[in-house]
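Two folds, back to back.
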Amino acid sequence: MSLRKKAVRGLLWTGSGNVVSGMLNFSIVALLAHFLSPADFGLMGMVLLVIGFITMISDFGLGTAVIQEELFTASQVSTFFYVNLILGVILGALVYCLAPLISSFFKNTELATLLHLIAIVFLLSGIGSTFRTILQKEMRFAALSVTELSGIATYGIVSITLAILGYGVKSLVYGVIIRQFIEVSILWFIVRYRLTSFFRLTEIRHLLRFGTFVLGERILNYLNRNIDYLLIGKFLGTELLGYYTLAYQIILVPISRVAQVVGKVTYPVFSKVQNEPEKMQDGYIIMLKYIALITFPFVAVLFVVAPEFIHSVYGKNWDATISVLQIFCLYGAIESIGTTVGGVLYAKNRADIAFSYNIINVAIVASAVSIGLHYGIIGVATSLTSVSLPLTYLWQRKTNLLIRLSWRSFFNTLSFALVVSVILLPSIYMIKLLGRAYFYNNDMGILLISFGSAIIIYILTIGALKRSLIIEVKTIFSHVNS
């Protein structure tokens, strides 16, 4: 099968899997919001800060280096497995021992108990990391999608059941643990890995330099993306962090997942054509165009119907989330473009650039969040949004140079998605006003008619102004099925 077909099939599998997983996540959070308090969500946000950080550094960047490597032998796989296993044990023990200190930082005694419980996740994550890397390198995205969907479904069943039974925030922690166990079991079965005793660090020593830069970039990127959680949890408390966390999950998590879907497929593809800038440029333009066509119209519609969305899905006790969500709509649109550059930098073996630029990001974002804290969670969201555009420009400028992409071509690629969004904004606002007059205070009715109208307008706009796009999609599918 050609590289193009593998890439498109990978996008189809990963994309459809993420649509389903996104819907499952949305449904799970919506149900849990009726059984758990904002403070519970805020407390879990603190736990996820620790999980996210430890999981991110769990393979020390070697997984990304493995994918970039052209050849990877059985002896290297065995060594890679044991390195991940050892790191998982060490990091799990570290979290368990540091739990009281972390709890003291956030001034929340319950956090220590939750971190003691969650420590086992890092051992499981260390084991699963090897198998995920192998499947991604081999572009077996169907297997990865099945694994993730199984894990999310398990998490939903366990968490919702325990929340109904009154376990509170522990229901989320137990859900995460069971999910990791199920995913690792499925991954091991799919890869059919046969455990051997071979372990020699010299086998993967040459990957360490690249992996070190990846790890450094990940740590800085993690701080960049989570310093708001850290400071809100520290200075504003769990309840406000809960409202902020929900807004973040609604808008930024789905958008980052869209970018991750594309990045998960395009990174191994770009790695294979890393010495062919024209092919990389063509692939990057296609990636950018379709990400923008999904994310820009989505945030435009959500900005208009944010109040009805929150009231209908989560209830009126989550009103404090609405303004943050609307601010994050603009932030999410900008971030959806900024998240595309990492795969290019890694594929070009320039993790050092990503590392250097993230130093700048962390300094600016930390300053913005610190200023925003004086004005509550709305101030934090506004500050982050205000600095996101210049930071994205810095990233994009270097990426464009690496693949020889002009700014004119870059903006032309985004222009149609912006046109669709500009058409949707006033259209949905007028439909919402008409719906308010007809449905009175029925938020769900207004929400449904607004989203339904948005889909129709979106399709008609593409059909009227960009019929070539429909032909392009049909051509891609015909190549895959041929």
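---
second:
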Amino acid sequence: MGRAHGLDGSFKVNQPVRDFTPGLVVTVARTQRRVERAAGTARHPLIRLEGISDREAATALGGEALQIAEMETPPEAGEFRIADLVGCRVQGLGAVQRVLPGPSCDVLELDGGVLVPLITDAVVQVDVEGRRIEVNHTFLGLEEPS
């Protein structure tokens, strides 16, 4: 969660990864709450959650992670959830420690500090079931072109 906005319990969402609509259920500080109000833009959403009705309550939750329940339908063939990438091995580079939101694309942070942009030029194949990610070492500057 970001900073409180206004007096009614609304707050800014830092680094949103999806749209927030009224009725969406989120978890914050280990408590599930429904989005009561959504305003702002996709890049800079402002939301108010049920049970958070004033600036002090919103301020108290500042910095807490805002978690959204995964979709109930599984991803289609060739699709994956970002959370599924954590722990996958990247041959010769290590395992995905976390996925960082970036200004233009998400970035895989591997143990050892290597960063891999989550774009088709860099990521050749994702095998969530096999827990493997194949990357283009040449594109990433880790090998000389052949």
